[in-house]
UniProtKB/TrEMBL annotation:
<keyword id="KW-0805">Transcription regulation</keyword>
<feature type="domain" description="NR LBD">
    <location>
        <begin position="4"/>
        <end position="173"/>
    </location>
</feature>
<dbReference type="GO" id="GO:0005634">
    <property type="term" value="C:nucleus"/>
</dbReference>
<dbReference type="GO" id="GO:0003700">
    <property type="term" value="F:DNA-binding transcription factor activity"/>
</dbReference>
<dbReference type="InterPro" id="IPR000536">
    <property type="entry name" value="Nucl_hrmn_rcpt_lig-bd"/>
</dbReference>
<dbReference type="InterPro" id="IPR035500">
    <property type="entry name" value="NHR-like_dom_sf"/>
</dbReference>
<protein>
    <submittedName>
        <fullName>NR LBD domain-containing protein</fullName>
    </submittedName>
</protein>
<keyword id="KW-0804">Transcription</keyword>
<dbReference type="Pfam" id="PF00104">
    <property type="entry name" value="Hormone_recep"/>
</dbReference>
<keyword id="KW-0675">Receptor</keyword>
Length: 193
């Protein structure tokens, strides 16, 4: 599914691609860090989670990943809010025992939802979302049966909303750093190729 339905992305305009990838990056990493934290839970210290690029964050030492800056207090508040949303998302993923195909489908839905928002008249984005959703539905039917398939898909879409809430707080923090912290460098500005 992933190989086949990520292909139309190469047809997207370069500026739209840059915008979509910036938005998608935060969402993908939130979902992936929740998934990896659950997967590696037995090996992680208590009250910790895997965040970006495999860094292990102790939830009782949030300040370890927030630099000394004039807006440190605000950044710590955003981090606390992000971790609150993260914990809720993690509980939902644990409760559902999401498998790799469901995770891949959610990643695909997140990507194509961003593309559809950025290029609303591009039908391939909507068609690709529908194809992923159809395959997810077929998978859910096999996994939980006809009586529970609809509620499972609804629960997976709810997790997507939770991931978006976490990512929104992350992107707000990023914006705060761009505006108020002169040391902040935006990697996305460098993405021109």
């Amino acid at each position: 599914m992933v190989n086949k339905y990520f292909i139309p992305f190469d047809k997207v305009d370069k500026q739209i691609k840059k915008f979509v990838l910036h938005q998608f990056y935060a969402k993908y990493h939130m979902l992936e860090s929740v998934y990896q934290t659950i997967k590696m839970d037995a090996f992680l210290p208590k009250n910790s989670c895997i965040v970006f690029n495999g860094y292990i964050l102790d939830e009782h030492d949030k300040g370890a990943i927030v630099s000394q800056t004039s807006i440190r207090h605000e950044l710590l508040q955003h981090l606390a809010l992000m971790l609150k949303h993260y914990a809720g998302c993690k509980k939902s993923v644990e409760r559902l025992k999401i498998d790799d195909l469901e995770r891949a489908a959610m990643v695909g839905m997140l990507l194509w939802q961003e593309v559809a928002s950025a290029a609303p008249l591009w039908n391939e984005a909507t068609e690709t979302q529908q194809t992923i959703l159809n395959e997810l539905h077929a998978h859910a039917l096999q996994k939980v049966g006809i009586a529970k398939a609809g509620s499972r898909i609804g629960a997976l879409m709810s997790i997507i909303n939770e991931v978006e809430a976490v990512a929104r707080v992350f992107l707000e923090r990023e914006t705060m750093e761009k505006v108020f912290d002169s040391k902040y460098s935006d990697a996305w500005v460098a993405v021109e190729g």
